[in-house]
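stage 2 :: seqdesign
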C-alpha cells in the first residue's frame, strides 16, 4: 500500500517490525512532493515514534490476526488472557498494555493481536463500563450543562464526569481517550 493510504488504526511493517498507526497527517506543500507524517507504536517494544514518508512511497502492510479472548488477571508484569476457541491461556507483557490496562477488568472481552503467531497486544471494545470509586459529593441542582468534576474509576483511570455522578455508580467510558460517555444501564 502507499503511505498516503495509512490511516489511524492500520498496521504496517517499519524497520522490520510490526507497528500500529496511532495518527496520520497528510501535508501537500505548494512546491515539492506531498508527505505523510505517521505516529507509530511498535507492537513488539511498545515504543512510539514519528516518521515521514513521501506520500507515494510503498509501505508494507503487517499481516496481523485477531483472536477473540477474555482478560483474566495481571501477575508478575504479565497479563493473562483466555482463548475460548482453543482453550489456551496466553500472556502479554504488562508494559505492552500500558494504555489498555486502564480499561481492563477480569472477564473483559478483547481482540488479541497476533503477528507471526505471537500475541503482541489487544484491541479493546469501543467502550467499557467501570465503577466510580472516588469523586467529590453530588452538587444540588447540577445539570448536564454544568462543568464536570474529577473521578477515579475502579481500574485507577482518572476522568471527568458530570456533577450528578456519585461514588459507587457505574458509568460508560470511551476506551480511545478515557472520556465519560454516560451512565451504565441498570441491570
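stage 2 :: out
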Amino acid at each position: 500500500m502507499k503511505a498516503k493510504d495509512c490511516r489511524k488504526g492500520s498496521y504496517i511493517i517499519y524497520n522490520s517490525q510490526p507497528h500500529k498507526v496511532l495518527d496520520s497527517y497528510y501535508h501537500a506543500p505548494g512546491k515539492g512532493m506531498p508527505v505523510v507524517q505517521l505516529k507509530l507504536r511498535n507492537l513488539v517494544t511498545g515504543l512510539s515514534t514519528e516518521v515521514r514518508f513521501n506520500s507515494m512511497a510503498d509501505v508494507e502492510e503487517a499481516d496481523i490476526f485477531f483472536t477473540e479472548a477474555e482478560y483474566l488477571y495481571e501477575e508478575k508484569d504479565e497479563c493473562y488472557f483466555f482463548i475460548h476457541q482453543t482453550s489456551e491461556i496466553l500472556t502479554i507483557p504488562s508494559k505492552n498494555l500500558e494504555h489498555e490496562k486502564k480499561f481492563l477488568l477480569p472477564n473483559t472481552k478483547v481482540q488479541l493481536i497476533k503477528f507471526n503467531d505471537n500475541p503482541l497486544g489487544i484491541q479493546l471494545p469501543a467502550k467499557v463500563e467501570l465503577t466510580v470509586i472516588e469523586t467529590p459529593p453530588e452538587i444540588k441542582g447540577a445539570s448536564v450543562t454544568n462543568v464536570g468534576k474529577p473521578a477515579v474509576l475502579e481500574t485507577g483511570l482518572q476522568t471527568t464526569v458530570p456533577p450528578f455522578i456519585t461514588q459507587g455508580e457505574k458509568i460508560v467510558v470511551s476506551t480511545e481517550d478515557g472520556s465519560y460517555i454516560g451512565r451504565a444501564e441498570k441491570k
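stage 3 :: structure notes
- The mean pLDDT is 86.
- The radius of gyration is 20 Å.
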